[in-house]
Amino acid sequence: MKKLVKPMRLVSIIILFILVISGCSYVKYKKAIDSPLIAKGPTIEIVVNEGETLYGLLERLKREGVLRNYYISKYYIKKHNLGAEIKPGTYDVSIDTSLEKFISILKQGGYSVKLTIPEGFSVEDIATKVEKTGLVTKKEFLYALRKYPIPRFVKDDNKKRYNLEGYLFPDTYTFQKNAKADDIILAMITRFNQVMKDVQIETGREIKEKDYERILTVASIIEKEARVEKDRTLISSVIENRLKSNMMLQIDATVIYSLGQHKDVVTYKDLEVKSPYNTYKNKGLPIGPICNPGKLSILAAIKPDNTNYLYYVLKKDNSHYFTATYKDFLIKKKEFGY
């Protein structure tokens, strides 16, 4: 006959079991809070991408296997109301850093910041993007830009909105957290110079610095007008053909830049805006670039296709229809619903 476990002894075993489980859970919980990151060395590099949220970052760190416990971390953050906007950048974090301290570091910003400028951004677009990274304010950036020494290949003209419009090359840059506006501007102009050297090699042409302004102005229009890759050199040919024919360029992108604000639809009233950038009111090219173009648009400006096209109309698939006659242009405008 089996011996029955005495009731008191059974209760003791159950209590002990619960205590052991609770103790293990507490140790696991405390470890996840006191030392949430896993790394082989004494520190770990954490990169926060632009626009990434705190929970999005934790989710990624969990997938990468460097976060001890995603669910405990998330619970602790919600319980203590630690969630807030984190700043993009690169962070060198000690593996002994607590979860609370880690989040505090993310709110302050890393030791380096990644800045990505898309093709076609204007100076003011760039200034807004720079401010979002936490490097310098938009106001500080624009002030520094106006005061920045003009490189010899830039035509200084007080009628321009910004002398350096077009020369801040769109790319991905990494800056130290304490970088100044002048550091950012210098990096972009330096990159522009590098790209122009590459362009000379690729085209097999000697491009003189005195021609930069014209090339950049045409390239900036192409960048704003082209929606698909194959249209760049065709739009470039239309610009060149209209200039050779002594025709007004009449390009909407120059009107939008003249207005100083984006518009999906340009009205007849908009076309009357007085500005040295408005190609509906002024013959020839605008007074300077209307954005900061990428390499492909610069190449298209240097080597346009050989066509007789004088007009183009945007199609529903975002490509353009090109034609040499005004009559055909009007027919297609009506056909496409303009």
Note down, in words, how this protein is organized.
With 338 residues, the chain is mainly α. Helices cover 46% and strands 9% of the residues. The chain is elongated and about 105 Å long. Helix 8 (212-225) packs across helix 9. Strands 1-2 form a two-stranded antiparallel ribbon. The chain has two domains: 34-108, Endolytic murein transglycosylase (Dna Ligase, domain 1, 2-Layer Sandwich), CATH 3.30.1490; 112-307, no CATH class. The protein has twelve helices and six strands.
Order of helices and strands: HEHHEHEHHEHHHHHEEH
Tell me the overall shape. Answer: elongated
Read across the widest sheet, the strand sequence of neighbours is 1-2
Q: How large, in whole angstroms, is the Cα Rg?
A: 29 Å
| Tally of alpha and pi helices | 12
- Give the mean pLDDT: 90
Low-confidence spans: none
Number of domains: 2
The biggest sheet amounts to: 2 strands, antiparallel
Give me the secondary-structure category.
mainly alpha
Number of strands: 6
Helical fraction equals: 40-55%
Strand % is 5-15%
- State the end-to-end distance: 97 Å
EC number: 4.2.2.29
Pfam families: YceG (PF02618)
Keywords: Cell cycle, Cell division, Cell membrane, Cell wall biogenesis/degradation, Lyase, Membrane, Transmembrane, Transmembrane helix
GO biological process, one term: cell wall organization
